[in-house]
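Notes from hallway chat w/ T.B., transcribed later so I don't forget. T.B. wanted the structure written out for a chain they're using in a teaching module, and asked if we could keep both sequence and structure tokens in one place. Agreed to drop them here.
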Amino acid sequence: MTEPAKPGFMDRLRTRFPWFNRIMVAQERYSESRGDFFAAGITYFTVFAMFPLIMVAFAVAGIVLSRSPELLAEIEVHVKSALSGDLGKQVIELMDKAIASSTSVGLIGLATAAWAGLGWMSNLREALSAMWEQRPEPRNFVVTKISDLVALLSTFLALALTIALTALGSSSLMTKVLDWIGIPEFSGMSLILRVVSLVLSLLVSWLLFTWMIARLPRASVSFRSSVRAGLLAAVGFEIFKQVASIYLKSILTGPVGATFGSVLGIMVFAYITARLILFATAWAATSKDNVVEEPIAPPAPAEITTRLEVHEGLGVGGAVAAVAVGAFGALGLSRLFRR
């Protein structure tokens, strides 16, 4: 009798530590739903959308400078002092051409940003829906794009609110506010402001990720489990920001980092953030609140097909053949006995 196979090391860990088993269950959902594939798609559209947004930013800056000749003259003075000779003149000429074509550049940038943004939102919503294992019925193309546009605008509003609250919670700004109020600086003030800034940033990230996990999928999902998953994503995001700031400082010091560091930094930041959001969504989708036992369907009814087989016996041809074989055998035996 063969002994049953012993459980492996990972199986023993999952049995002993429920929290580890919970992580592995979420990771299995993430892998089965092609989380890395969707994260790469989100990263691509994020980087692709940066260029038209930069075009829009330059167009806005050009419009502002065209209506503020004093500011434009001051900038030209700084450019001439920093870049003397023909190089400074060429930079000023490029600035004048950019300001003159700011309207057309802004319109092209807006159109391209809208197209890239819709692709980014569509990929993000499909990824979140895949983590929830949603299979929504295909809708009209126009209705889908309008829904993605509304989700894109609401996401931008949520991101703008997040950035604003994060900026308000920065320690430097809070120090200026305290100075403006008249509160003198005391020992340990910087540490307290740092902790308050970190807590506020964590709270804002928590709200943003919870909203994305709960409201961006194609179908409605449980908000309760999304809150816990949003907290998980917010904690991971804050840890990643602290590590990334140290990493980027060491990378950007070299010549290669100074040339490609900004693009690589955006790509790494977008990819890790996308993976955090998708893993947190897989965590929420595999919680006990969302695990539904599906009843096993009964087997299909069996079909009984009758088959009739008729055995007609030897028949006339078979009887004649049998008589011939018997006669031939008897004749052979008689000759054998005579010998």
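Follow-up for T.B.: The CA atoms of residues 52 and 113 lie 5 Å apart. Might be a good example for the class.
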